[in-house]
Structure formats: structure tokens, C-alpha cells
Amino acid sequence: MRRLGEWYNLDYYHHLAHGVRRLAVAQIGTKIADLKVIVGNLVANDELSPAKEFLDSISSRVDAAVDEAYKRIQAAGREAFIQFLSHNQEFWAHCENRKGLGYRSAIRDMTDEEVKRNSTEAQTLVRGLIVLEWNRIVSVIERLLQEHGNSLSDHETSDA
User: Fold this and answer.
1) What are the domain boundaries of the chain?
2) Please, which residues have CB within 8 angstroms of residue 74's CB and are 6 or more apart in sequence?
3) For residue 50, how many other CB atoms are within 10 A of its CB?
């Protein structure tokens, strides 16, 4: 607690950022899982076998975009909580004064209360990050579709 959340043995902000990442996975992950089902159904359709390579590329590019999005969200979430908590001397003093049985649970609960009570800005930032990263993922999909559409047009033109 004396180190304001940063210590080689326990990085408080890392754990808070991991929670932010979990929120992103819950929100973005469900949409990606739905997309994967659709792509999987299309790949399994024998009539669409010429599109299999394209569909597989969508899946792998989206996976890469999602992984990068989660990393950026976690890093930004860490920074948001550093901004929010690192200078809050009263909070850290309150945590440091807590002793005895149930210390870990008490610190967790105090942190939860502090975040709920005073972190409208951090929560807004986290929500905004998730929306921003989702929009980036959608842009990746749109670019892939556009590129594929352009390559089909070029192919049709060359066939004519």
C-alpha cells in the first residue's frame, strides 16, 4: 500500500487492467463468437467452397485484430486506473491502516467501493475503449470485404 499500488511482487494496476480486459472479452467476445458461427456455417456449405479461403482469412484476421484490441484495452485500462488511484493518498492510507484477518478481502472490497464511488471518468474511458476497439475490429472486416469485392471486380473485368 505504501507503494501506491506498484510493487514488483504485486502490481495492483495490472490486476485492475486484467478486469478491464475481462469486461472487453465479455462484450466483444460474444459478438466475435457469433461471427465465428456464421463464418463456420458458410465454410461448411459446399456450395460456397470457392469462398473458403476468403472466409478463413476473415476468421484469422479478425482473431488477430481481437487479440490486439484486448492488449490495447488492457494497457489503456491500466493507465486509466493509475491516473485514477495513484495520487489518491487517502485511499492508500485507508488500505494501509487495515490490518488483521480478512485483509485481502477487505482491500478488494475497499478498492471496489472506491472505484464505484469515484471512477465515473475511468468507467467512461473503459467503455469508450471497448467501443473504439470494437469499431476497429468492424473496420478490419469492412476492409476485408471491400478488398475482396474489389478483387472480384478486377477479376471479372479481366475475364471480359
Assistant:
1) 6-159
2) 17, 18, 20, 21, 24
3) 7
